Amino acid sequence: MVIPILTKIEATKIEIMKKILSLLSLVVVLAFSSCIDQEYPLWDGSLVEFQDAVVRTPVAGQNYPRITVNNKVGTVSLQVNLVAPQRASDETINYTVVPEGTTAVSGTDYSVSGSLVIPANSSTGTLTVNVVDTGALGGSVDLLLRLDGNASISPSENYKQVQIRITR
User: Fold this and answer.
1) Backbone angles phi, psi at 110, to 5 degrees
2) How far apart are CA 90 and CA 120, in angstroms?
3) Backbone angles phi and psi of 29, in degrees to 5
């Protein structure tokens, strides 16, 4: 009778050792697979970009998209995105007409103000181009616009230009 009791005790010891080994294995796995503390750099810049430049395909050989409109459209509204935390006050963003990509004539084919406002607590503003109805002359003219930003907000290098083709 002593032999079966020793065998039972040895079996219990073996089961306890298996449990301890399993727990120890689990602790080792958890210890080596824990998160590594890394410091990732945070970008804290401020940019503006044309929404159309982000979502439309650029013109072949250029880094900007082209939007085609009829000269009877009246007004073309272009969304300008603020890529930064929203501001507590209005931000005036400047833009220019790029002569190298423009064949349209100011006052004859279009009119623009040269600046737009991104309202306080907003991430977007609207650049408005007034297209003049010159009648049915035929052909088309182009207007290339470039965001310049302001003292604290720069234009995005990749998405700062949009061309409007006005068909007549």
Assistant:
1) -160, 170
2) 4
3) -60, -45
CATH fold for domain 47-167: Immunoglobulin-like (2.60.40)
Domain extents for the chain? Answer: 1-38, 47-167
Q: Report the residue count for the chain.
A: 168
Q: C-alpha distances in angstroms, 97 versus 50, 63, 84, 104, 128?
A: 14, 16, 25, 10, 13
pTM: 0.76
**One-letter amino acid for residue 144 of the chain:** L
pLDDT in tens, 79-135: 999 999 999 999 999 999 999 999 999 999 999 999 999 999 999 999 999 999 988
> Six-digit token pair at 140?
């088309």
